[in-house]
Amino acid sequence: MSTEPTAPTRRTELLGIAAGLFAEKGFKNTTVRDIAEASGILSGSLYHHFDSKESMVDEILSTFQEELFAAYDAVLASDVDARTKIDRAVRLSFQAIDQHPHEVAIFQNDAGYLGGFERFGYLAERNAQSREVWVSLLTEGVRSGALRHDLDIELTYRFIRDTVWVAVKWYRPGGRHSHVEIADQYLTILLDGISTDPQSPSPRERP
Amino acid sequence: MSTEPTAPTRRTELLGIAAGLFAEKGFKNTTVRDIAEASGILSGSLYHHFDSKESMVDEILSTFQEELFAAYDAVLASDVDARTKIDRAVRLSFQAIDQHPHEVAIFQNDAGYLGGFERFGYLAERNAQSREVWVSLLTEGVRSGALRHDLDIELTYRFIRDTVWVAVKWYRPGGRHSHVEIADQYLTILLDGISTDPQSPSPRERP
DNA sequence: TGGTCAACCAAACAAGTGCTTGGTAGGCTA
DNA sequence: TAGCCTACCAAGCACTTGTTTGGTTGACCA
């Protein structure tokens, strides 16, 4: 990320406060007066720093997405087998939830609403991009024999995406489980299942 | 359900329209004028049928939850092993998404916000109740040897709950996958994993 | 000392919000 | 025919919303 050195300006501080409120109550449900009160100023004063309430989420989300997808690209480009890539991508996601819970929560809760505005078209683009990453990883895994070939790639992608990202709704940094423990447990279940016996028909076959 | 025979009254019709809008745009983000316009009447006329906008969601959610939890109770009370119960509970959930997509979506998206009002205290209660159902099922499964005993019950419960219910965000009745196919695929992955080989350490052990 | 500037205040505005009020049209029934 | 009832309209009220405007404060600097 080679933008500015990002000094901890008042602007940045206000964005952090806004992000917390957006994540907690939702974008539409958070008023500029809420943000102002939490910042110890009046609502009108926010407009000295930002054009609009929309531009606040915009800055919050776009900054985060840039960072996140740079990390995904690094995983995709790494020279390891599909299984390891999947492992890393899952861990990366839980780590993102740990380090940027507000941003992830806003994206999870309000992407649908915000996506309706032209300004936030990049949200849908990033979503499609993320899907392609996962679908290609899973396809590679099946082709290499590391993953079962009776998998429906599209459904499997959705299951993984959903489970990973919705965790932001209950995960609390510094809580009972670290994001690493959660990733461990999920990867165990995802790769090998919760069962002791393989289920009756069509068990683990090799290509 | 032994309430009233529920004739297809205008009231019921309006509730259905409201449910669709709430599910699509969120409760807070749907105005009474939206609902009225979609119904072909003026906003004030809604108050001939309902006390408030809140009482509309209330009726939508409470009716659905009653029905859903009666079904869960039946699964819990059935005389089969834990694995079969888990199978049935998962299928039941995907079926609920298929038959009541609006209600599920509203619950998923707005339970957090609505839960803040006393009136909707039952939402949190039902949530706790649902957790107990799953935790007891999983615990029984581990104890009986059907499920791996290195599972973190709490995390496993959350993973299952999240994956199942968030599916309402992309599942479309009559779409490419039936709810039965989706349940099949998810149960396959959940029980046996996506991998062909059991992962390196601590594979499938018996108690 | 005077000028500049970021940060903020105080007050308001227009649009949108949930909801209320008084009234009306038309069907059903006693 | 009279009375009642369901379903609705028309208009508005009180409040909240995002945003604008003109002015004030205090730190920094030449």
From TrEMBL, chains A, B:
DNA-binding region: 31-50
Domain of life from the UniProt record: Bacteria
Protein name: TetR/AcrR family transcriptional regulator
Presence of the UniProt keyword Cytoplasm in the record: no
Natural source organism: Nocardioides cremeus
Source organism phylogeny: Bacteria, Bacillati, Actinomycetota, Actinomycetes, Propionibacteriales
Transmembrane parts of this sequence: none
Keyword terms: DNA-binding, Repressor, Transcription, Transcription regulation
Domain HTH tetR-type: from-to ranges: 8-68
